[in-house]
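DM from R.C. (forwarded with permission)

"hey, sorry to bug you on a friday — could you get me a structure for this? deadline for the figure draft is monday and I only need the backbone to look sensible"
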Amino acid sequence: MLGPFVNAGVIVVCSLIGVLLVKNIPARFEEILKKAIGLAIVYVGLKGAFDNNHALLLIMSLVIGALLGELVDIDRGMNRLGAWAEKSLVRFQKPGNTATGGETRGKSFAKGFVSASILFCSGAMAIVGSMQSGLEGNHETLFAKSILDGSISIVFSASLGIGVLFSAIPVLVYQGGIALLAIAARNMLTPDIITEMSAVGNLLVAAIGFNFLAVGGTEGKEIKVANLIPAVFVPLVYLSVRGLFG
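My reply, with the result:
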């Protein structure tokens, strides 16, 4: 649970920095910061992916996972869920006194909270990183995600206000829940299964880094990492079935 707690704590601290100390961040600084973090994420992902013992299984997992994810279109579903959550929270936000700017502040709080929560929770990095924390006690991915989320929290909170800080709550609940489920399942998994699942997951982390490096690039050419998430579970199925037949 160390990774989820650190991630939530960084969001809180950086949101306070954005609200209290930072007014406006030039777009060029935001872009170079994302690319620098993207390089770090690529390094962390590739470093972990090279620890696998079955290269063909990794390739097969990506192919099968991509087909399943694209068939279900997980990426589209997550985007729709995020849009629905944002509209719902803004709609049911209690309006304040318009004359004093209460309604504007209420909507700004809701927008900051929802936008940050969706961004921090919906990515594959949150799922894969939490699984790694639970399965093998490896918090590197969530630590890298904390740096990314912290940087974004400063930018968001400077423009959208204190609502961004409260996104730390769903981040902790969501990532902590995944980590606890992984801990519960860890005793049922062999070291070989954990190694191969982690290798595939790390490759997805690298894909996230490549997406950050593509900031400002060709629109629509990003890797839909969410549609590759089923690939993480292919080694579990394959190695479990193989184990049943000796």
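R.C.: lifesaver. The CA atoms of residues 52 and 190 lie 14 Å apart.
me: no worries. The chain has one domain: 2-244.
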